[in-house]
């Protein structure tokens, strides 16, 4: 699919797709004979994973590190796993903190609902 269709499908702007390609996050995107980018289902799967990592708070530097390891092949599987496990722990910690914040907000709202706070 062309860049416009891929951008619509992924929700990632063409500018961002070009940037990701430039910094090595998307690797070598195929091109048609006229030089226009052609994205595949494999590219869609990869960008979806990138977006998932971003949505879970992984910094772009960490995603780039993962992408570079991925490009090196199977010999980096253990390192990539460790990287994802560390990110998972950070995400678990963040979720626990957010749950504590939510509980505090709910307690305050309950005070208002009960007329206990002016």
TrEMBL record:
SMART domains the record matches: HTH_MERR (SM00422)
Protein keywords: Coiled coil, DNA-binding
Keyword DNA-binding: yes
This protein's record includes keyword DNA-binding: yes
Single annotated GO MF: DNA binding
UniProt cross-references to InterPro entries, sorted A to Z: DNA-bd_dom_put_sf, MerR-type_HTH_dom, MerR_fam
Organism superkingdom: Bacteria
Coiled-coil features, chain-numbered ranges: 88-115
Residue ranges occupied by any HTH merR-type domain in the UniProt entry: 1-69
Name of protein: DNA-binding transcriptional regulator, MerR family
Organism: Vibrio xiamenensis
Source organism phylogeny: Bacteria, Pseudomonadati, Pseudomonadota, Gammaproteobacteria, Vibrionales
């Amino acid at each position: 699919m062309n860049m416009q269709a891929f951008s619509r499908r992924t929700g990632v702007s063409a500018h961002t797709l070009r940037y990701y390609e430039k910094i090595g996050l998307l690797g070598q995107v195929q091109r048609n004979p006229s030089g226009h980018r052609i994205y595949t289902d494999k590219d869609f799967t990869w960008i979806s994973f990138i977006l998932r990592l971003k949505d879970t708070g992984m910094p772009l530097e960490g995603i780039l590190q993962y992408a570079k390891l991925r490009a090196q092949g199977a010999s980096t599987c253990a390192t990539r796993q460790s990287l994802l496990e560390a990110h998972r722990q950070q995400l678990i910690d963040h979720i626990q903190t957010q749950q504590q914040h939510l509980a505090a907000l709910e307690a305050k709202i309950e005070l208002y609902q009960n007329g206990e706070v002016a």
